[in-house]
Amino acid sequence: SLFGWDNEYGVHEAVVPDFKASKYLVSNEEYLDFVLDGGYSEDRYWDEEGLAWKAYGKREHPLFWRKGDDGYRLRTLSREIPLPLSWPVEVNCLEAEAFCRWKSEKEGNKIQLPTEDEYMQLRDVSEVGNYLQWMQEGKIPANLSLAYFASCVPVDRFRHGAWYDVVGNVWQWSRTPMYPFEGFAVHPVYDDFTVPTFDGKHNLINGGSWISCGNLATQRSRYGFRKHFYQHAGFRYVQSDYEEKISSNPYTTDTLISQYCHFGWGENRLGVENYPAVCAQKAVAYMGAAPKRRALDIGCAIGRSSFELARVFEEVIGLDFSARFIQEAQKLKDEGLLRYTLPTEGELESFHEVTLAEHGLEEAAERVSFWQADACNLKPIYQGFDLIFAGNLIDRLYDPRKFLEDLAWRLNDESYLILTSPYTWQEESTPKEKWIGGYRRDGENVTTLQGLDEILGDDFVRVAIEDIPFVIQETARKHQHTIAQMSVWRKRHQS
Questions:
Q1: What superfamily would CATH give domain 6-239?
Q2: Helix H or strand E segment including 479
């Protein structure tokens, strides 16, 4: 029976330009030329990781080669034999990459390992078929699954279209790091099978080897290993300029960042709708027929409110003091995809994926830009807006009055300022003398709404206030439930 791992599921599409692929896997004979030409002693053929590996192991040739007085021998599964020049060389990815650099220098062309996309294209063009088809036909047309031998065989033994050994004999290193397809989801039965390899350091191997059976022999299998590992793997090379567009390290694991990712993009919790989305929708509704050309979202966090506003506005600028927040928002804009983990219980965690497509925001995202900025010290370029939205911001600023007094001139006439906040003033964020509410003055209570009226009253008319709940999930069973107040302010006409 066959099975699949989590990384095989999802969707990936790519347009692969023309490339040339070597007819054969690189043989021991071809690789020997690299060795004899000083390939292991010339540092220019090795990248930083390769140099460190080579120095650590004092490598002068592939691991399974043995150098003797009569030349090289090969250590196979059961014994040592004279080096079979026609067999595929078995090396790690660092060695394969060094060979490609040497080959590029010799030929004057850009020679490199194929990407996963290029390998799949080669497989399709060669019409080699797939494992289920071979099982039905009762014959495997490759040195695969122990069907013929318990070792490698010459690289010209199994032909697949215009090439040889498109599958089988040895695994083939690619230059593609392990990454998730769109729609990837962790399977709870083996939740750490793939995710630890999303670090940009585990490269995919393709095609299976003579000993690969079951899932390892299937067309869609995806296994990634560190570049210094050996896995009955060799390689073929391509002449290509193709550059993949992938995200190899997609999961945000920082607890605070992940909480805000989920706050902005997670599903409704405890019967409470998504807060940034609701705020953006209400902001648009309160504006009515007012112009909606440019909006400024201050304290945008991971960008949900900015993207939602862009459904209506011609341009939206999202600002946040946190560079990490802006990085995540920008990544979502660029890639249309965001992944993060959340703690669920103890050291356990859940895995989450957000796409702009599922929220219908792909087109809107083109009208959004994100920038890091200090809300209390905004640059003059941020002006000419029809809406300024500041969600859950004022009670986390070091000088909220300065921030509020600096807004009117940035807005067009008859435009809107909309604030939300739970008014949770704390001295860790705002010195007490800077609070605009939540304190006593001359023995009388001063609320934040009163403070807002005092600061904004000359330039704005308060047209509405409304309570809006939100939930922040800390673990699967612990949530923060908070009620924020939205205050809506229309700028007075300046005569």
A1: paralog of FGE (formylglycine-generating enzyme) (3.90.1580.10)
A2: strand 478-491
